Amino acid sequence: MESRPLYLGPRLKRLRRELGLTQAVMADDLAISPSYIALLERNQRPLTADLLLRLAKAYKLDVGDLAADERDDYARRLADVLRDPIFAEIDLPALEVADVATSYPGITEAMLRLHTAYMREQQALASFRGTGSTEADPLAEARRFVAQRRNYFPALDSKAEALAEEIEKLGGLQEGGLAEYLRSQGLRVRLMPAEIMMDALRRYDRHAEQLLIDETLGPQARRWQMALHIAYTALRPEIAALVRGASFASETAAQLVRRAAAAYGAAALIMPYDRFARAVEARAYDIEALSGQFGASFEQVAHRLTTLNRPGQERVPFFFIRVDAAGNVSKRLDGAGFPFAAHGGGCPLWSLHDCFRRPGEVLTQWLELPGGERFFSVARSVTSGGGGHGKPAVLRAIALGCTAEHAPKLVYARGEQPAATPIGVTCRLCNRATCTARAEPPLGREILPDDYRKTPEPFTFAES
Fold first, then answer.
1. One Gene Ontology cellular component annotation (predicted)?
2. Residue 71, pLDDT score
3. In terms of CB atoms within 10 Å, which of 62, 64, 94, 307 comes out highest?
C-alpha cells in the first residue's frame, strides 16, 4: 500500500515555537534553508523521512510521535467546531468534514482560529453586558500571559530542579532542608508571633538577614513560605527575564505575572518535574496521595498538575479553577481547552459549587457542553487563613479537569462511567432550552411571552 506524503506544517510550527526557535535557527539545526522551513510550515512541502530523523535527533524527540498524522485530529476538531448551534441549520456530512480537514489543512486551521476568536468575542460580549466595564483588566492580562505559554515555563523548571538537587544534599526538600539551604545563603529562619509579624505571613528582614515566618502557620504553610522566598531570590534572573520579555498594559499586570512566576518556581522546587511526573503516573493522578508524598497541600498539587507540559514529557493536560462561595474566580488556568466564563464560576450544575455544602469531600463529575465536548472534573473545597481566634478561615472550591479522552488515566474516573451532566459555560452563552437553573437568557435569542403558557424554565426562547 502506497504511503501518503507526510504534511506536518502546523505541528512543525508549534514545535518550533515551543522550543523558542526562529525559522533561521531551526533551519541551521536541520541543515536546510529558512525558506524550506517556511514551505514545510505552510504544508507546501511534505516532511521527508530524512528530515523526520534529523528533527528527532536535533531536539531529542520520539520519531513515532512526530510522524503521527494530524489529519484525523484536525477532522475531529473541525467536527467539534461545526457542532456549534450557529451551524445547526446546515447539512454537514461527516465525510465532507473529513475531506476538508484532509485536503485543506490550511483552511481547517483558519476555521478553527476563527471559531476560537468568535467564542472569545461572545464571552467578552457576555462579560460586557454583565459588568458594563470597558477598562483594561490586569488580572485578565496576566491570565492570558500564562495561558499563552500553556502554564509551562521551562527556565523556571530547570533552575528549580537543579536547586532542588542542591537542597537535597543539605537535608531534603522538607522544612528542615529548606531552612538549612537558607542558612547556607547567610539567612536565618525564625518563627515569630503575630504581633511581631504585623499581619504578614512572611517577612524578609534584609538588615538582620532573617526570614521571619508567622509561628501560627502549619508545617506545609511554613515550608511554602520558605520555598517562595527561595524562588524570589534564587530564581530572580529567570523571573525578571520572563516579565521583561513581555509588554504589559499596566505595572499591576506585570506584578501579577511576577507573583505567578514565583509561585510556579516554589512549586517546581518542592515538586521537581521529573520526580513529580513519575509519581503522577505511578499514583494515577491521586491528588491526596501525591499531597502526602510531597508534603504539599491539595491545591498546590492540583496546581502543579497543570504545569506538566515539558516537550516529550507531557502528562494529562488539565484546566484549573478556584472560586469562592459567591462564584468569584480567584485563580484560573487552562490547559485542556475548557471554555471558561469570563466572570463568575460558570454553570451552577457543575459540582464545583457543591463543594461548599460538602467541605473536604472530593467530588467527581462527567460534564458535557452544549457543543458535545465532554470533560471530567475533580473538585474539592480548600481552606486558607485562620490559625487563631479572630482570624477567620476562608473557604474556597477548586476544580481540576481534563477532556474525556484523558480521563481513564485518572484513578477518580475508573469504574462504571455515569451519565454526563449537561452544563453551559455561562447562561449568556448556553442555548440549552430546558435548563431550570438558568439565570439569564442566551445572547441573541428572542424570549417568548408566558401569558398563556408557563414552563418550569425561567425563560422560554425561540428556537431560531
1. cytosol
2. 58
3. 307
Query: Residue 245 contacts by C-beta under 8 Å, 6 or more apart in sequence?
Result: none
Contact, 297 vs 291, CB < 8 A? yes
C-alpha cell at 392: 477567620
Would the pLDDT of 291 be above 80?
yes
Q: Please check whether residue 397 is in contact with residue 379, taking contact to mean a CB–CB distance below 8 angstroms.
A: yes
| pLDDT tens digits along 154-194 | 999 999 999 999 999 998 999 999 999 999 999 999 999 98
Q: Phi/psi zone of residue 203: left (φ > 0), alpha (ψ -120 to 50 degrees), beta?
A: beta
Domain ranges in the chain? Answer: 136-270, 274-425, 433-464
Q: Which three cell numbers stand for residue 139?
A: 488580572
Find cell 447562561 and name the residue.
Answer: 427
Neighbours of 281 (CB within 10 A): 11
Residues 367, 451: contact at Cβ < 8 Å?
no
Identify the H or E element spanning 233: helix 219-234
- Closest CA relative to residue 377, chosen from 408, 403, 405: 403
Q: Which CATH architecture has domain 136-270?
A: Orthogonal Bundle (1.10)
Looking at the domain 274-425, which fold is it?
Answer: Beta-Lactamase (3.30.450)
Rounded CA gap, 8 and 71, in Å?
9
- The beta-carbon contacts of 123-130 under 8 Å, at least 24 apart in sequence, are 123/339, 123/341, 123/342, 123/425, 123/426, 123/429, 124/342, 125/428, 125/443, 126/341, 126/342, 126/426, 126/428, 126/429, 126/443, 127/342, 127/343, 129/428, 129/443, 130/343, 130/428
Most trustworthy range by pLDDT among 77-86, 108-117, 241-250, 254-263: 254-263
Q: Are 242 and 257 in contact (CB under 8 A)?
A: yes
Q: What is the pTM of this model?
A: 0.72
How many of the other CB atoms lie within 10 Å of CB of 236?
Answer: 13
Reported confidence tier of residue 1, pLDDT bands at 50, 70, 90: very low
- pLDDT, tens only, 219-256: 999 999 999 999 999 999 999 999 998 888 889 999 99
CA 19 – CA 318 distance, rounded (Å): 21
Find residue 333's DSSP bridge partners.
320
- Centre a 10 Å sphere on the Cβ of residue 169 and count the other Cβ atoms it contains: 10
R_g over Cα of the chain: 25
